[in-house]
């Protein structure tokens, strides 16, 4: 765009409110989430990754099980 040639229009916002996002879940991921929950995946992953979490530095870590949350 050349200097002085900017349109008078305004750029749209660059975020989407979570209330505007439709929560859809595929049956495969629903079944996977149930299986992981029933098998205690969260506790296993947290115990396995515990050594990589700092107790006092920075923000609290995200539980490893949240990376696979889909529903």
Break the fold down into its secondary structure elements and pairings.
Elements: H1 27-38, H2 41-49
Explain this structure.
By secondary structure, the protein is mostly helical. Helix content is 30%, strand content 0%. It contains 2 helices and no strands. The radius of gyration is 21 Å and the shape is flat. It starts with 26 loop residues before the first helix and ends in a 22-residue tail after the last helix. The mean pLDDT is 76.
The poorly predicted ranges are none
Strand content: under 5%
What's the pLDDT, averaged over the residues?
76
Give the end-to-end Cα distance, rounded to a whole number of Å.
43 Å
- From the alpha carbons, calculate the radius of gyration and give it in angstroms: 21 Å
Largest sheet: none
Order of helices and strands: HH
Question: Helicity, in percent?
Answer: 25-40%
Tally of helical runs = 2
Overall 3D form: flat
- Total strands: 0
Structural class: mainly alpha
Short description:
By secondary structure, the protein is mainly α. It has two helices and no strands.
Name a few traits of the molecule:
71 residues; flat; mainly alpha; single chain
């Amino acid at each position: 765009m050349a200097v002085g040639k900017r349109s008078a229009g305004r750029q749209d916002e660059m975020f989407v409110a979570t209330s505007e996002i439709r929560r859809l879940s595929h049956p495969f991921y629903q079944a996977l989430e149930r299986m992981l929950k029933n098998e205690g995946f969260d506790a296993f992953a947290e115990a396995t990754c515990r050594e990589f979490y700092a107790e006092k530095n920075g923000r609290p870590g995200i539980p490893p099980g949240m990376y696979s949350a889909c529903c």
